[in-house]
Amino acid sequence: MKICVGLSGGVDSSVAALLLKQQGYDVFAMFMQNWHDTEGTLHGDCEWEEDKFVAELVARKIGIPFYFVDLSGEYRKRVVDYMFDEYARGRTPNPDVLCNREIKFDAFLKKAQELGADMVATGHYCRKEQASDGTWKLLEGIDPGKDQSYFLCQLNQEQLSKALFPIGGMLKQEVRALAAEADLPSADKKDSQGICFVGKVDLPVFLQQKLKSVEGDVVEVFDAWYEASPQYAAQKSLLEQASAGGWGSLTTDQLMSLAAPYDYSSIQFETETYRSGKKHIKKTRFKPNPFGVIAGRHEGAQFYTNGQRKGLAIGGHASPLFVIGTDIESNRVYVGEGEEHPGLFRSVLRVAPDEIRWIRPINALQPGAVRRCRCRIRYRQELQDATLLMRDAGLFVCFDKPQRSITPGQFAAFYELPDPSDPYDAPELLGSGTIDS
Predict the structure, then answer these.
(1) Less packed terminus of the chain by CB within 10 Å, N or C?
(2) Is 398 tagged catalytic?
(3) The pLDDT of residue 38
């Protein structure tokens, strides 16, 4: 069997290549360049060249052929342009998930097959296993601190059938130790950070390549708004109903109501004139509002995301401010003080019908179906107990405990419940979907 390893210059893909070579496979390495532009990046202009250099050294050390492929055109069209479009809509995409679906296991796979590869291997910390019906399961990696199955949550059966994850059954320290023992040039290389194949970025500067900066208000929302809000009261009542009768007792309209983000547009500010100083100079100010205050200014609501703390540049508070919502039309950013601010938490999210992807068809839910599962809405989040409800309007994920910063545009990944009798049981990743609301 001929296997192409996506060699990035990092320690994980290096050890993946080493293991396959030791196991006797016909292995070759391919390094892909997916990005040229350095605008907004926080690293040197030639970081990809350094990665390529290290990858070549690794391939030479292991004794496998090395190839280079430029996929920057596909990456810009299928990942970066998607990012810009999503941010312009006020959503926060996950480019790493898209990169795996559209590039590593699509465009890159096709290039590898042109060179004779039967399979493509990567350094992801996850595993695959063939089910009794012949389909492929995607499982968490052994290392709980490094599991990367979330990043592969959009893969389909055809892609999984061609994928290998040689280090999915290893701990990170074991990978590092093996690389050091083999004296691989990448043994001490730090893990990459930031956007897949772009690196660490100043996100507003990066997005300003296509999205214009437009100043707007940062509105701090007070607790009094929730005390007076009919929407907040209605959601609280529905949660009590679900607690008593189960999530299945709610209608689709009620689930839609619970999945809807809070609408802060009712917080408006009127001006008044007053005279100031000894000369009684006439000035204008905003009238006090019990529900909120204009706390600062921003350069574009599309540059902010739910749960964000950094970049607000607003002082004078006992506790940090967090973004609790954005409104692209009014160009407003809403914030709340403190990590327990009610605007940070919701219990239900919705995935639109055309955004749902099941890794194995047998796990697909039909309208009316209910299934218990565990779910995560961001990488490295601990799996959360939840109930899946499939309706014609989409898939509703109802969490046992309110979740912090549910963010449209991100991916929700659903896992089977673990076997309580098996402490080593790794749950299967059932499917995923883009969070609509």
Answers:
(1) N
(2) no
(3) 54
